[in-house]
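Batch job 17 of 40 flagged for manual review because the log was empty.
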Amino acid sequence: MDEHRELLAKNDPDLFAALIGEESRQRRGVELIPSENYTYPEVLAALGSVFTNKYAEGYPGRRYYGGQEYTDVIENLARKRACEVFRAEHANVQPLSGSPMNQAAYLAFLEPGDTVLAMDLSHGGHLTHGAPVSHMGRIFNFVRYKTNPDDEGRIDFAEVRKMALEAKPKIVLCGYTSYPRDYDYDEFKKIADEVGALTMADVSHIGGLIAGDAMRNPMDYGFDMMTTTTHKSLRGPRGGMILCKKEHAAKIDKSVFPGLQGGPHMNTVAAVAYTLKEAAGDGFKEYAKNVLTNAKTLAGKLMDEGGKLVTGGTDNHMMVLNTVESVGIDGKVAEKLLDEVSITTNKQIIPDDPNPPLRPSGIRIGTPAATTRGMGEKEMEQLGGWIMETLRNKDDEAFLAKRKAEVEEFCGKYPVPGI
């Protein structure tokens, strides 16, 4: 790998400088975006391997190109390990990322105009869960349920049931991108069964926490299918997987290829296979447990310091801080301020946000990446205090410069895997 880096530095110094700059940025600062993590060095090795060179359209034993001896080995390993880790009957590991993963799941069972019951974007749902600006929102009829702000952001299942009985969806979907609570899969399954709908859970954010037995697994509740990205809390490469009952395997596989995608990225599939090997170990279970503990500690500290969290706490790895109510600034300003002191978060809409998406009322904060670096509860207390202090001192340049130095000195104690 050192030889490859030397070639890159020699032949494209501008690109190499950006790579080195990003490595430095990741070391110096603390990553608190819930959807980001630091992957394993072995994953980086697989991503940069000769599997990048190989086309492998089709599935093991049924490819459209020759020379598939080793691609079949790694894909079979990934599928077998995915089924074992998530207690699923079938796994498709070819989706290139989270959005095409969900698109393939919809297109396996729906016709244009069919109805899906899913979470509203501003209340925590993903773009692919039917946001009007997404292609999926134009192709299918998404009916979107919301959370109840008077019940710490929990879901009113009586209302969800009422909506399902009226809309008669073909799929009942639970899943989120900025919802800090766990899901009651049993309640969703009951509602779906009552209206004759399929059940789908998008657990992209908490896939690693499910794999590590730190959070509930929808497959244990009889869900028809579950989608998850392979990065985020799972710590793998950027990709996606669809887990499903055996009875849906043929439809899912056909929908991924040739329905939506061409050749899979076999270097990514190899990296997914390694990621799932790690996820099956006791060490990963301890990691998943620590991610949750750190999130609860960080959320508690933010609230102790006057922070207003949209759900009054967290059941998973993330939290959404209403910066307008907490400190009187919007999420765009808050994100930029924290960037200035080497604390990385992302601006985030809050339920029924009166502000536009690029200038929302909050920021989203999570603990997977910090936990990967070995930070614990003591460090979460420190970070929570720093975040609130920084947001309250937005116009004090001397304070911000001092805080940046403190954060970077702090981060120097916690190595980044693979760098």
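Reviewer: the log was empty due to a logging misconfiguration, but the result itself is present. The chain has a mean pLDDT of 95. Unflagging and moving on to job 18.
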